[in-house]
Amino acid sequence: MLPKVDFRRTYLIARRDFLGYVKTWGFWLSFLMPFLFGGLGFLASSMNLNVEPVRYETILDETGKYGEGIIAMENAKWEKARALIEDNLPPSMAEEGMDRVQSKVIFVDPPSDNMEEIKLYVKGDKTLTIDGETAQLNGALHIHSGSAGPIVDYWSTNVNSNYVKRLASDFFKKRATEAYLSGGGLSSKGLSEARSGAAEVNPFDPSKVSEGGEGDQAITETDKIPFYVATIASAILWLTIFSGAYMLLTSMLEEKLNKLLEMMLSTTRLSEIMLGKLLGVAALTITAMLPYILIGIGGAIFIAFAAGPEVAEGLRNAISLKLIVFFPIFLLLGYLFYGALFIAMGSLAESMQDAQTLTTPIMLVLTACILVVPLGLNSPDSPLLTFAAWFPLSAPFAAIVRLPLDPPWWELALSAFFLFLLSIAVIWLAGRIFQYGVMSGAGVKGVTSWIKRVIFRRKISG
Questions:
Q1: Going by C-beta distance under 8 Å and a sequence separation of 6 or more, which residues neighbour residue 230?
Q2: What is the chain's percent helix, strand, coil content, to nearest 5?
Q3: Counting Cβ atoms within 10 Å, is residue 72 exposed (0-12), middle (13-18) or buried (19+)?
Q4: Which of 41, 160, 261, 286 has its CA 20 to 30 A from that of 351?
Q5: Phi and psi at residue 129, in whole multiples of 5°?
Q6: How far is the C-alpha of 416 from the C-alpha of 16, rounded, in Å?
Q7: Would you say 168 and 152 are in contact if contact means Cβ atoms under 8 Å apart?
Q8: What sign for the dihedral angle of Cα 16, 17, 19, 24?
């Protein structure tokens, strides 16, 4: 028989838990933080602000063989990056993107032929004049001859400045590779041409509907986007359930330690307290996740319009009817299941240390459940993922991440039904534990004594 519930008292408890967090400054700071940082990022982007200052570097090449090659390799790298942007982004985005893709290092002519004097510029004792403005020389690459080959020294007051050091290192490694190849009558250009002429692997999916051409069954980014979306949705689902369940634990523990539960029990049933807490923290969790949901929807809409028809089609395929139907179902059932467990553990705990000890097994289960999510990208047909979609503890996350494989409706419904049955059982059990922990004031020691007395039939002394 289901316990009696007064919905007005349940509502008051839910409202109390919800407003108790919402009225705090910390909640609103965390709520507005995504919008704040998003706005600052947009402002910095629109104002073309650079958080990393432009660095002026010079190369003193006493050998006369390498300096120009290092600068040419740097310029070629950024030209290649701009070409990739131009080839893969719409014109409206590519033009702006190419303007932003540029090196933060500007190479200038050596202010002196003497390295000792150049060190004064690096230390800041002397300054450069660039376009009529004063600037400091941030670093100097000194290349000179040694008995075994060139010696390369880099001078800078910034001990963490690695960009030019890596650039020079890559240049000399490339030269060493070319020298090794040329020793056998080969060249890096020939090696590159040989690699570019190798056969490419073209992926196809025979399950795709073809209208007569083999290219219709080629695997494209459009086919991969639903798997990305499902993985992100599953991760959000896990984070929402985890956040809500943990807030239930802390709320229950705080009220038990402060004797607030004893006051509430004078006018409210245990079932109303438990249901009210589940509803109140559920509303709080959804409110806390709302900024990320809105940003995600806005980002998807922007990408769909800005990135071209292929991405838009992939997003349309990802936001399927099954995702719209089963995402809230698994969110609700997963939250009820784990939330009831955390409430029960919180009612038994007598301190935060007790709570951490009691909830460790549940935390391990939740952590193991999130580990199946990456399988949705790498091995969506994995037998482990199929099992996880049926296993009630991991079903909320595994079932969502398998949606791009288009499992049948009955399979998803049956998985949700199994989780529903287990959630009912867990809520009933959690209610009994909640009653035992609150009404009798029992804690971990009380539960241990009960198990020894009832399960193992041991006599408890004292």
A1: 318, 323, 376, 400, 401, 402, 403, 404
A2: 70, 5, 25
A3: exposed
A4: 286
A5: -120, 110
A6: 31
A7: yes
A8: positive
Contact present, 448 and 354 (Cβ < 8 Å): no
Q: Say if pTM beats, i.e. exceeds, 0.85.
A: no
- pLDDT tens for the chain, residues 1 to 462: 456 666 777 777 777 777 776 776 666 776 777 677 666 666 655 555 555 667 899 999 988 888 899 899 888 888 887 777 667 666 656 565 555 666 778 898 999 999 899 999 988 888 888 888 888 898 888 998 888 788 889 998 887 778 888 888 988 888 888 888 887 777 777 777 776 766 556 666 666 666 655 566 676 777 888 888 888 888 888 888 888 777 777 777 777 666 666 666 666 776 677 777 777 777 877 787 788 778 777 777 777 676 667 777 777 778 888 888 998 898 888 888 888 887 777 777 676 676 677 777 778 888 888 888 888 777 777 888 888 888 888 888 888 888 888 889 999 999 999 989 988 888 888 777 766 665 555 555 555 555 555 445 565 554
Structure tokens at 231: 């993985």
User: 225 near 314, Cβ under 8 Å?
Assistant: yes
Residue at token pair 């607030």: 260
